[in-house]
Amino acid sequence: FDNVFSSDLLRAKETAxxxxxxxxxxxxxxxALRERRWGRLEGQSTEVxxxxxxxxxxxxxQKTLTYKPHPEIETDEEITSRLIIFLREIAVGYQGKTILxxxxxxxxxxxxxxxxxxxGHGAASNTAYIKLESDGVDFFLKETEGIKFDE
Length: 151
Description:
The protein is 37% helix and 22% strand. It has helices at 10-20, 46-56, 61-66, 76-93, 105-114, and strands at 3-7, 27-30, 99-102, 124-134, 139-147. Helix 4 crosses helix 5 (105-114). It is globular, with a radius of gyration of 15 Å. The N and C termini lie far apart (33 Å).
């Protein structure tokens, strides 16, 4: 990798630091790679969150992207919007470079759904990855590992 970016949340940042340790690369953090914003549900029981995510797994890709069970909860579309802006900036600013981006399973799932690949709740294992290529505008899915796609 030529550069490393990570969510500013501790677990993702620590993972990025472990991966990049041998390469002696500084991890640059950003809120753009954070997990979904849950508003008042942030830090609450995961039971509600799992119920919402399980319900979403029955939806079409389009409905999954736009479903908003509460005004404070970030939709997949909102996650993807902030992510795509960040990814485009990186694609243009680091053209021809190989960039490692460490984020969260929900962010990965939202991106895959945006790309038309239906990935449900819990679809990304802790060691999952997505390999993308970009021309600075569009993103092309090249490879995934550790991702379960809905049929």
